[in-house]
Amino acid sequence: MDLESGIYQNHVKKESWRTVLTLAYQSLGVVYGDLSTSPLYVYKNTFAEDIDHSETNEEIFGVLSFVFWTLTLVPLLKYVFIVLRADDNGEGGTFALYSLLCRHAKVNSLPSFQSADEDLSTYKKDISSPAPSTFGARLKSTLEKYRVLQRFLLVLALLGACMVIGDGILTPAISVFSAVSGVELAMEKEHHKYVEVPVACIILIALFALQHYGTHRVGFLFAPVVITWLFCISAIGVYNIFHWNPHVYQALSPHHMYKFLKKTQRGGWMSLGGILLCITGSEAMFADLGHFSQLSIKIAFTSIVYPSLILAYMGQAAYLSKHHDIRNDYSVGFYVSVPEKLRWPVLVIAIMAAVVGSQAIITGTFSIIKQCSALGDTKRLGNASGLAVITVMLVTTCLMSLVIVLCWHRSVLLAICFVLFFGTIEALYFSASLIKFLEGAWVPIALSFIFMVVMCVWHYGTLKKYEFDVQNKVSVDWLLGIGPSLGIVRVRGMGLIHTELVSGIPAIFSHFVTNLPAFHQVLVFLCVKSVPVPHVKHEERFLVGHIGPREYRMYRCIVRYGYRDAHKDDLQFENELVCSIAEYIRTGTNSVDNDSTKLSEDMFVVGTPSTHLDGIQMCEDNEPDEETAGPSELREIRSPPAAAPRKRVRFVIPESPKIDKGAREELRELMEAREAGIAYVLGHSYVRAKKGSSLIKKVVINLGYDFLRRNCRAPTYALSAPHASTLEVGMVYHV
């Protein structure tokens, strides 16, 4: 997935109808692939073993009624008209709802959060406190007061995320296998079983290879496939309706649901797990919101996807209502209702559509394929996928009820009605899926449990590590006080100390300086952190300030990213960092009395060089030091000429406003340090549970967290830093 695409979408969402329609077209290939292929397996999984297709047609008409009202109430009413409005600055999904609640109720779990982050424009957008006497105000106060409720909210969001991952693992297998199963009707029985599994494996391997190209690049490629598929199933549906049973529309009445449950009783209730599969992929409308816009997703669903699916399901029901001869377990499948002359073309289109619908997370698919080849059909995969889907929807319903009260400031009665109405529907499907725990429904539970344990262990270990840093940080006075006793010397160049602290000197640097009493002439404590918003504007990216007296040339720079921003740790980032410090030197000390720019702890907001073109710009070249002509309003500060040619660094500063002599000298030292080179000081911590800790804590920290740290990819800055200029400082953290 392309993390930068959300930035683009933020400024195109208000453009012309041509842009909206283009986004709607692209969304068909990205968002609705999974939902559009559900007719391949819904009826087959519903009639797998719990109910029979009888001559009275009460079962097939009841299933059609359930499918129609489920599609109408959940994707159309709940997601299109309600949930899509709860976007987080254009982003959707479980964590977007959690981020929205964190900002409104201040239940943020990020330890490095600062009050300065609340001044971000995207943070403050549409945020207002509820009236003091309302239920929303009391609920907000309760959430902020009790840590156990905050942890429960975090676990709920993690559960939704884990189930999405689980569904992403199961979706490719069930979609592709259901599509390829059409070979059963197109080939002789003794041959098709040797074709289905290899073909499915080849398709999934090819699908895996395409993932790195990104959603935005394949949107235009995938959209025609989904449009062709939707046109195909809707046309076949219309044909079946008029050819076999023109009165099938009467089955849309809710009365048929009552007759279905009355006749089938427990078997009908258990079959709801198969009916549930008709809304697989609905969560993608909200989760993929950041790539498109609310209006484009609504247009695509209401005008194309929804009517096509209804016609497809009605057409299948019309055909099955006139065919009751059960010869094999595929008698109620999708392909049996396709005219025989069209089965091969439809099979090809279905496979292509299934590939599109499966362009999500496909890790672990191959092990599931191996299990499926032994099972012979997709029934157990359907049970597993259904439970994952409905769990995500239940989590969304719970979080949305809080959003209604805390973020939208609506009546608590409205939130209760929302939970009761949609929660009851989803709880009914959840119970039907859970009853088949041993028949495949255990898969998403096991997967989500594994992912949940990994996330919780990582969160707990990271939090304890940060707490150790906070408790053991040292003051600037301590650092300056030990200087004479240790004989600390300053060497040429710039030292870049990566830390997670937003204040104070990290313990790992004090450990370093007491063992090696020397550091660079310019010292920058760099903190790269995430904030609970999807994007941070470039104008607000950097927070810069002095550490200690100005003449010590020590700076703190906090780089803030949203959870959808792409982190860049390359040469361009280094130049932006140096330019932000230079711009702070030029304007920061002169803006002390300007309350709009001054932040807590004397930190100032400084944008990237592209956002202040009238400010300081940095140039690098290998040319000799010569006078260069330029605009009369600009002046250049250059480093002194060197004996041998080397890369030169120049700061081009505007003529106005004037800067004092001290600032000019500070800029010159910064320039010389950058020219001499940057040394990267990285902490390499070994986290261990302290003596006296419980056995569970020792297992979590010493085994679980240590294993994750050793086997997970290092931060991007650690990978991009030149090895020759990197210094790692090891230290044991007893937490």
UniProtKB/TrEMBL annotation:
Residue ranges annotated for the K+ potassium transporter integral membrane domain, each copy included: 23-376
A GO MF term: potassium ion transmembrane transporter activity
Stated family: Belongs to the HAK/KUP transporter (TC 2.A.72.3) family.
Membrane topology category: Multi-pass membrane protein
Primary localization: membrane
Region (Disordered): 620-642
Name this protein carries in UniProt: Potassium transporter 6
Transmembrane parts of this sequence: 60-81, 152-174, 220-242, 267-287, 299-319, 344-369, 381-406, 412-430, 442-461
Pfam families: K_trans, K_trans_C
GO CC terms: plasma membrane
Keyword entries, A-Z: Ion transport, Membrane, Potassium, Potassium transport, Transmembrane, Transmembrane helix, Transport
Domain K+ potassium transporter C-terminal: 493-734
InterPro entries the record matches: K+_transporter, K_trans_C, K_trans_N
Organism: Sesamum calycinum
Compartment list: Cell membrane
